[in-house]
Amino acid sequence: MAHEKKPRFTYNRLNHRLDVLVKGRLWLQVILAMMFGVGVGLLLGPDLALVTREKADLIGGWLGLPGNLFLALIRMVIIPLAASSIILGIAGTGGGDALRAIGRKLIVYVLLTTVAATMIGVTLSRFIRPGRSLEEGLPLPPSLKPDDLQLAVPAPSPLEGITRELPDMITSLIPQNITASLMEQDMLAIVVFSLFVGIAMVSADKKELTRPLVALTEAMLEVSMTVIRTAMRFAPLAVFGLMAETISANGIGTLVDLATYCGIVLTGLACLLVMYLVIVTIFGRMNPVAFVRAVAPVQLLAFSTSSSAAVMPLTMKTAIDKLKTPASLAGAVVPLASTVNMAGTALYQSVAIMFLADIAGTPLAAGDLALVMVTLTGASIGAPAAPGASIAILAATAASFGVPLVGLPLVMGVDRILDMARTMVNVTGDLVLCRIVSPKGVGGQEKPEPENDPVPAEVVSVEA
């Protein structure tokens, strides 16, 4: 006897829930909150000095509390959200040729755009040399001790280090203990684990045995999205607090002092955005103006939160509704892209390491530049999708090339503001990838979007 198929979760329900926020002009609320945050930050900042530094820090800390709570709430569920989305998304592709095609496009896209980003950053820095006008002898950041700079002396060749560590790096991609990876919030390991689970699910001979796992995964996605929906209602307040805290701590004067450095980073990110528009026009077959209009709300929220992981739900919705990406593909591609597609971060780090080298009076030789690009390409892929994560990667990469860290305080001073810009670029790249892998992209034929789960019917069907 045939039984009616009853999918437990659909992306249509996700769309309906986020539509409530979009129709409520969430983007307008975020813009206004950002403007008010900048204004309050200027009043508290060192430029106007209306209050003492101690009081400004105290007030800024309380103003930033809603934003920090917002980010903490998002981070709390981002792992179950990403894992369940990847598993159900891969299951929805049906495996086989479709899954392999997505994998090929993703790998080629991420590698080429990340390499292009590092080339843009290195080229701009090579010609403009933003750190030449600054003197050496800058104070060390509080977290660094003088002995730590011994790490930044020319030691083994970077090529030798890469060659020696590459086998271990490849092996480490496979999580040996998924529980430990969850405890450490190792996003890359969790993504790899979810990929294997999703592939195994579509490859299983007895798919009826996978139904309990499907039900659990759907429930995990449902709960995660409920938390996300609640958190998104407080996004304007969070944006206001984060902007006020950032501006009050750094002030506009910090940007003026480092105008050349910041200008190079922002110019490079602008070049990267133009490259993305060219890609989406040629390979995604979409009008660039229409694309910009479609992704603008996501870009704004990504700029405000400095976390591509935090805007993942809205990125999925935009890919599905505005870019016409099938829900199954969006569920698999967006979490993957937010983890490995970090071209904006690679560009920022390439400019920053050249800046540090110029400040320290140890400019990198021409032969090292290619190794810098290779190293930063690898280091950026899989970088944590959270605010401030790139500083640790930058310090480690600089040390491996013998670049002293004496200029790190300057980089850290404007990192938050530049982090906003590069996060916006990273999210834009994720959406370009969604458009490319969709049936409308790269010469494909559009297919009707199923209304059910991004999981094959034989996997989710329930027998009485």
**CATH structural architecture:** Orthogonal Bundle
Main sheet makeup: none
Ends distance: 10 Å
Unreliable parts: 1-11, 135-156, 443-464
So what's the overall shape?
Answer: globular
CATH domain class: Mainly Alpha
Q: Give the name of the CATH superfamily.
A: Sodium:dicarboxylate symporter
N-to-C order of helices and strands:
HHHHHHHHHHHHHHHHHHHH
Q: How many individual helices?
A: 20
- Give the proportion of residues in helices: over 70%
CATH topology: Proton glutamate symport protein
Mean pLDDT: 74
* Cα-atom radius of gyration: 23 Å
Write a brief caption for the model:
This protein is an all-alpha fold and 464 residues long. The chain has 20 helices and no strands. Helix 2 crosses helix 12, helix 4 runs parallel beside helix 8 and helix 5 packs antiparallel against helix 11.
Tell me what the structure shows.
It is a single chain. This protein has helices spanning 11-23, 26-44, 53-63, 65-93, 96-128, 158-172, 178-184, 187-203, 211-232, 235-257, 259-282, 288-305, 312-321, 327-340, 343-359, 366-380, 389-400, 408-413, 415-437, 457-460. It has a single domain (11-456), classed as Orthogonal Bundle (Proton glutamate symport protein). Residues 1-11, 135-156 and 443-464 have low confidence and may be disordered. The N and C termini lie close together (10 Å). The protein is built from 20 helices and no strands. The chain has 464 residues and is mostly helical. The chain is globular.
